[in-house]
């Protein structure tokens, strides 16, 4: 059985805690490797190495740091196929999806090549007689990130690339479900020229996370994962005096107006609802058609599209629409919620419960499900399902539809499909959700904008990537300096003042 490692001080090191987690092949259900779960001593050791490495790294000028990012982009492109294969093997997503995962991380690395420009401070000349005022952005020191299983390349790079470009050291605690790609990324960025110890990967579970939360040297924590853990990490991290940003769960609504192009809306819903088996924080999990006629037309268009979806292992080729979910527990949770939907009176118009893939009976595959006539009191509406299950809530009016999305506790993403500019504009202005699509089902902002939700989908002030990341990973210092010179106000030179 393959035993994975940590990546500490530029070396692959075996875990010393003798605690391990199983890594499954989600397509077959077999355990394919073991990952060590770090003890708090292993976290302390990584922090000690990071502290030393950071002192040397922060004085490397920003342009040289940017060159490491430049080279890292080349290496990510060189190894794209290898990374995607390793990612799919542990996560289960299709190869095109896995490449997308790497690509959307790579784009943030590209953005970080702009570090010399992004780190420039501000300057006020002659704020008073002989007085100049300027600000600088300085690295925080040792920073850390805790990441989820569903994007084991992208989200990691969203965190560590800006942190490192700003002159910090970074300790990454990736998901214990799919830790191979994080280890590969750490090796790759060192091949690009990053000094050893600036980026380290320490695998683990709650024990490692708690050690990160309690370590006084760690200055900031970035977290992406489920809302209960986000809330815990934000609370503990802040009370321990750290800078913390946590991104949590989601329940993304798509409103379909009566004037929408229904074919386009149905295609968009199938991609956004079932792609990556619904294991995306920006997946659409609730369709809200406005008016019964719109709802009937939408359901009629959706059913054949959903029934046609090809579910299978990533090895079956690029025409697979989605693969297995990540663990047996995730599968059970999804199917349990489907049963609750049926029991609570929702209409299951596409029933994937008996889905069975020949030759992969023990894999974690879940058939596609579509519910109609879901109501806000049902568990399938209130909870994040994180699986291939789309719920339809029929709204009588636009006001009722926008009200539903506004009243939901999550506020990550949302979309409206319409041909009406007024409705789209009103929706974009009023909605209390962080990322909004207008005829775009998954409105993930590009690297040079910022990513983040509202309400229970986020804890903290700044978003991920874009300019916010350069604020999160630096402290501003403002200097007021006085150099009395011989220049009198008015411009006449006063030689006496120079004596
Ligand atoms: P998770 O919360 O179970 O795990 C995330 C991380 O927290 C992992 O590294 C895990 O090891 C650690 N962790 C788990 N339990 C812990 C505990 N009790 N104490 C301390 N640390 C703990 O999330 P997941 O299942 O890996 O990922 C799916 C979730 O992430 C979904 O809710 C999804 O919506 C969310 N997500 C959000 C975003 C976003 O940007 N808002 C992006 C991707 C995923």
In brief, what are we looking at here?
By secondary structure, the chain is of the alpha/beta class. It has 2 domains: 271 residues, Aldehyde Dehydrogenase, Chain A, domain 1 (3-Layer(aba) Sandwich), CATH 3.40.605.10; 187 residues, Aldehyde Dehydrogenase, Chain A, domain 2, CATH 3.40.309.
Overall description:
The protein has 499 residues and is an alpha/beta fold. The chain folds into 2 domains: 271 residues, Aldehyde Dehydrogenase, Chain A, domain 1; 187 residues, Aldehyde Dehydrogenase, Chain A, domain 2. The chain has a 7-stranded mixed beta sheet, sandwiched between helices. Strands 10-9-8-11-12-22 form a 6-stranded mixed beta sheet, sandwiched between helices. Strand 9, helix 7 and strand 10 form a beta-alpha-beta unit. The protein is globular. The model has no long low-confidence stretch (mean pLDDT 96). It binds nicotinamide-adenine-dinucleotide (NAD). The site of nicotinamide-adenine-dinucleotide (NAD) has 26 residues, from helix 8.
């Amino acid at each position: 059985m393959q035993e994975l490692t940590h990546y500490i001080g530029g070396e692959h090191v075996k875990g010393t805690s003798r605690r391990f987690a199983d890594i499954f092949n989600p397509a077959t259900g077999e355990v394919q490797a073991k990952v060590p779960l770090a003890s708090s001593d292993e976290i302390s050791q990584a922090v000690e190495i990071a502290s030393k490495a950071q002192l040397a790294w922060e004085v490397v000028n920003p342009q040289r740091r940017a060159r490491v990012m430049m080279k890292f982009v080349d290496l990510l492109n060189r190894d794209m196929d290898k990374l995607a294969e390793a990612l799919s093997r542990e996560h289960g997503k299709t190869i095109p999806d896995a490449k997308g995962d790497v690509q959307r991380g790579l784009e943030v690395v590209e953005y970080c090549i702009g570090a010399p420009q992004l780190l420039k401070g501000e300057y006020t000349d002659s704020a008073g007689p002989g007085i100049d005022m300027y600000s600088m952005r300085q690295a925080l020191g040792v920073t850390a990130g805790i990441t989820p299983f569903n994007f084991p390349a992208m989200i990691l790079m969203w965190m560590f690339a800006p942190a490192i470009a700003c002159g910090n050291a970074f300790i990454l605690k990736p998901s214990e479900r799919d830790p191979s790609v994080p280890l590969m990324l750490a090796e790759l960025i060192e091949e690009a020229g990053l000094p050893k110890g600036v980026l380290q990967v320490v695998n683990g579970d709650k024990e490692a996370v708690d050690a990160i939360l309690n370590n006084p040297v760690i200055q900031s924590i970035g977290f992406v994962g489920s809302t209960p853990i986000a809330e815990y990490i934000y609370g503990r991290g802040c009370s321990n005096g750290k800078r913390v940003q946590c991104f949590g769960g989601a329940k993304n609504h798509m409103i379909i107006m009566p004037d929408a192009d229904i074919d386009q809306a149905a295609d968009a819903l199938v991609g956004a609802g079932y792609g990556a088996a619904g294991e995306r924080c920006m997946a659409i999990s609730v369709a809200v058609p406005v008016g019964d006629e719109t709802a009937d037309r939408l359901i009629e268009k959706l059913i054949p599209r959903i029934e046609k979806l090809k579910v299978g292992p990533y090895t079956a080729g690029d025409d697979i629409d989605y693969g297995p979910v990540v663990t047996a527990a995730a599968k059970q949770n999804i199917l349990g919620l489907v049963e609750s939907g049926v029991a609570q009176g929702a209409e299951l118009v596409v029933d994937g419960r008996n889905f069975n893939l020949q030759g992969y009976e023990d894999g974690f595959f879940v058939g596609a499900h579509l519910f109609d006539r879901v109501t806000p009191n049902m568990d399938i509406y209130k909870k994040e399902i994180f699986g291939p299950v789309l719920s339809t809530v029929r709204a009588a009016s636009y006001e009722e539809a926008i009200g539903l999305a506004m009243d939901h506790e999550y506020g990550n993403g949302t979309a409206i499909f319409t041909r009406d500019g007024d409705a789209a504009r009103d929706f974009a202005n009023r909605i209390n959700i962080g990322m909004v699509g207008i005829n775009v089902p998954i409105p993930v902002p590009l690297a040079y904008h910022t990513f983040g939700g509202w309400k229970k989908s986020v804890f903290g002030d700044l978003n991920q990537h874009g300019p916010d990341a350069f604020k999160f990973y630096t402290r501003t210092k403002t200097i007021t300096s006085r150099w009395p010179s011989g220049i009198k106000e008015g411009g006449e030179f006063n030689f006496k003042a120079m004596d």
